[in-house]
Structures are given as structure tokens and as C-alpha cells.
Specification:
alpha+beta, 2 domains, Four Helix Bundle (Hemerythrin (Met), subunit A), elongated, 333 residues, single chain, 6-stranded antiparallel beta sheet
């Protein structure tokens, strides 16, 4: 029986065009390819964080004790409040982006303009908040001493609040016994072999020890957790002995070398993961600003399509979703 073969004019070609895969335009497909590959990158970072957290499970900093600051409320400890605010702002910016895309489907230029503007504002607030969080994280609050083994010891005293005895941290600025010293940081003009050294620590270990001796209520708290999930607090005698025999360097704040909150790896991962995400948010804000001005100028109105808003919206939703995972794994778990 003879069969009939229709000629389509696409013989010898991989794909002759015509139907769109998944009914998506080329731009949307490329955006999805990028988002899938980028999600694998973030997954690798979060997996690395998980392995590090598991390895140092008994000494990893407690997020509720690290992220306690809120702008304009100096001196008050409000665990995770500001991070929750940042998360809320980013999620709401994702909502306004959804509304902008929907308005674009209805060719409503005024609403697209409004919602894109709100999305940009939300992104800028998040970036400003993250910059402020980095600043407070780097500057530190209480300070600590790094031991010869590279561990961190903190200082505080037991106080009774609402009938419950709890350990309250004390800043090293409040008890360090400052001693006169002519020691200055080596610079190229006065250093050995024309080398420079890092900024000198605010105090010496001897000054910390003298201050600890003078304040009988102070105790040393190590970075290691006990069976109840609390950091181990040493007795008065153990505190004096531990600081005198093992104290090496006074630390204030955090950077890529030292970290007053605990293992240095915690600060490294914090800067790397949140910084990489912040870079993505910055790119997203820049794209949103460009799209916003194109909407105002009527570019997409003349094209008869607001698909570009939708494509940038895919990227913005991805950035928001990634932050939800960062917030969950880094701050909550």
C-alpha cells in the first residue's frame, strides 16, 4: 500500500520554527535556562553551608544572638525582627511585580507604571537594609577574645529577669582595663622591611584579663554548646584561667579572618551567600528601573506587548524565592 509523505520545507533542519516550545517566546526560554542554572549555583552554596553547619554543629553561632539589631533602636535586642522585615519587603515587591505583569496583560500603562515603581522602591529598601545589616555585623557589638586554638570566648554575667536567671553578655568596652601603650600599627613609613600590618585590636589580652579580675561577676562563655543547646559558661576560676592561658587576640566584629560570633567560617559564608544574593538583587533593581522608564516612555505600549515586564518579573521572583531559602537555612534553622 502506498503511503503519502507531505513536504514541509524543513527537511534537513533540526527545527523549522513555527510552533513555540511550551508556547513560550525565545526570551522567556532563555530566562528560564538562566534561572535553572543559577538555581544550581545557589543550591551548591546552601549545600556547602549545610555541610559546614553540620561539621561545627556544637559551636555554630545562634542566629537569635547575632542578628538582634534594629535601626534607630540602639541598645535593644530584638532577635530576627529586622531580618523578618527585610523578608517581608522583598516578598511584597514580588507581589507588586505580579500586579505589574497582570496590568501589562491588560495593556494598562498607568498600573504597570505604578506597580513597577513600587517594586523598585521595595528592592532599594531591601538593599539598603542589607547594607546596614552588613555594617552592624562587621562592626560587632560586644567583642570577644580569640584563643590560641582559634576559638572564641565571650564575656557576660548572670542576671535575674522575671524570676529567671540568664546569662547576659557584656561588651568588652565596659570592663577592659585600658593601659598606656606606645604601640602603633606598622606602616610602610615606620614598619619593618617596608611592610604594613592590619589595624591593631582595640585592647590587648592583658587589658581584658585585668578587667576580668576587677569585675567579680564576670564570666567567660565559650562558643561550644552544651546538652541543652546553650553556650557553655565557665566558672569564675575557670574563666580567669582560660583567658590567661589561652587568650591570643581581642576581636571586635567580623571579617574574613576573625569573627566575634564564633567560627570564622560562619562569617565567610554569611558574606559570600548574602553578598551573592545581594548582587542579584542589585541587578534586578537595575533591570526594573530600566523597564520602569521604558514603560513611562511608552515603549511597550507602541510594541503592543508588555512581555519584557514579564521576563524581568521571572528574574525578580527567582531572587525573592532564593532569599526565602537563604532566610530559612541561614537565619531560622
Amino acid at each position: 500500500m502506498d503511503s503519502t509523505v507531505a513536504s514541509t520545507g524543513t527537511e534537513g533542519k533540526t527545527w523549522g520554527g513555527g510552533n513555540r516550545p511550551l508556547k513560550a517566546s525565545y526570551g522567556k526560554l532563555m530566562m528560564w535556562f538562566f534561572l535553572v542554572s543559577d538555581s544550581l549555583t545557589f543550591s551548591g552554596f546552601l549545600a556547602a553551608y549545610g555541610f559546614a553547619r553540620f561539621k561545627f554543629v556544637n559551636e555554630w553561632p545562634i542566629a537569635d544572638e547575632v542578628f538582634t539589631h534594629v535601626p534607630f533602636l540602639h541598645g535593644q535586642e530584638l532577635p530576627m525582627i529586622y531580618v523578618a522585615f527585610m523578608t517581608f519587603i522583598l516578598i511584597m515587591s514580588s507581589v507588586t511585580m505580579v500586579l505589574a505583569v497582570d496590568a501589562g496583560h491588560h495593556m494598562n500603562k498607568a498600573k504597570v507604571t505604578l506597580y513597577m515603581f513600587l517594586t523598585v522602591i521595595g528592592g532599594l529598601i531591601f538593599l539598603g537594609s542589607q547594607a546596614w545589616e552588613w555594617k552592624t555585623f562587621i562592626q560587632g557589638d560586644y567583642g570577644a577574645v580569640q584563643t590560641n586554638a582559634g576559638n572564641i570566648i565571650q564575656f557576660g554575667e548572670y542576671v535575674t529577669e522575671d524570676g529567671v536567671e540568664k546569662f547576659k553578655r557584656i561588651s568588652i568596652d565596659d570592663f577592659a582595663a585600658v593601659q598606656e601603650s606606645d604601640r602603633v600599627a606598622h606602616e610602610r613609613k615606620n614598619g619593618l622591611w617596608f611592610t604594613e600590618e592590619a589595624t591593631l585590636p582595640p585592647y590587648t589580652v592583658d587589658e581584658m584579663y585585668s578587667g576580668l579580675v576587677a569585675n567579680e561577676n564576670l564570666r567567660v562563655r565559650t562558643q561550644f554548646l552544651d546538652e541543652d543547646g546553650h553556650k557553655t559558661v565557665l566558672s569564675r576560676e575557670e574563666s580567669l584561667k582560660h583567658l590567661k592561658n589561652n587568650g591570643k587576640l581581642v576581636v571586635k566584629g567580623a571579617n574574613l579572618k576573625v569573627n566575634e560570633y564564633g567560627p570564622t567560617l560562619f562569617a565567610d559564608l554569611f558574606f559570600f551567600i548574602t553578598g551573592f544574593h545581594g548582587f542579584h538583587v542589585s541587578i534586578g533593581v537595575l533591570l526594573n528601573i530600566i523597564i520602569f522608564f521604558n514603560v513611562v516612555l511608552g515603549t511597550y505600549e507602541r510594541r503592543g506587548s508588555y512581555e519584557m515586564v514579564e521576563k524581568v518579573g521571572l528574574y525578580w521572583h527567582f531572587v525573592d524565592l532564593v532569599w526565602v531559602f537563604v532566610f530559612t537555612f541561614f537565619y531560622l534553622v
